[in-house]
């Protein structure tokens, strides 16, 4: 048995998956999240994101709503159906930011809704809020 005291701030980095068909948006957000101390990965389609969830086990997923083939709403529903997806935090990431868009994402099972381009301070606040929970 170890007597080692582990400081509160030494927990492992939060795992974040970014699902967006726009490679530049996804890759930029991954880099930004990494500057906040997260371990982040990008997936460029809903199907690719669904494949990554069981192995990567993210705690937070940023999900573009306007993707081709499988849009963000359908991807969110499929994520929520899998055991690994029930408890994670889903954040809609979209160019659509009207009140009805935010309401629709809440109804679809998203925990938050960010309008592109995502506000850096809001992203940092979200990560801090989740760390405090």
UniProtKB/TrEMBL annotation:
The regions listed as transmembrane in this protein's record are: none
Xref: CDD domains: REC_2_DhkD-like
Stored InterPro entries: Bact_response_regulator, CheY-like_superfamily, Sig_transdc_resp-reg_receiver
Q: In the record, which positions carry 4-aspartylphosphate? A: 64
Q: Which residues form the Response regulatory domain?
A: 15-131
Q: Name one GO biological process term.
A: phosphorelay signal transduction system
Per UniProt, the keywords (alphabetical) are: Phosphoprotein, Transcription, Transcription regulation
Question: What's the protein called, per UniProt?
Answer: Response regulator
Organism whose genome encodes this protein: Methylocystis heyeri
Source lineage: Bacteria, Pseudomonadati, Pseudomonadota, Alphaproteobacteria, Hyphomicrobiales
């Amino acid at each position: 048995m170890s007597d080692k005291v582990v400081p509160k701030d030494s927990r492992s980095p939060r795992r974040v998956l970014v699902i967006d068909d726009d490679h530049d948006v996804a890759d930029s957000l991954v880099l930004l999240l990494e500057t906040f101390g997260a371990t982040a990965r990008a997936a460029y389609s809903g199907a690719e994101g669904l494949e990554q969830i069981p192995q990567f086990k993210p705690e937070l997923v940023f999900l573009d709503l306007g993707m081709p083939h499988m849009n963000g709403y359908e991807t969110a529903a499929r994520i929520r159906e899998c055991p690994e997806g029930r408890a994670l935090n889903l954040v809609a990431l979209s160019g659509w930011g009207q009140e009805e868009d935010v309401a629709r994402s809440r109804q679809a099972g998203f925990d938050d809704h960010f309008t592109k381009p995502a506000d850096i301070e809001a992203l940092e606040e979200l990560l801090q809020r989740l760390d405090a929970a």
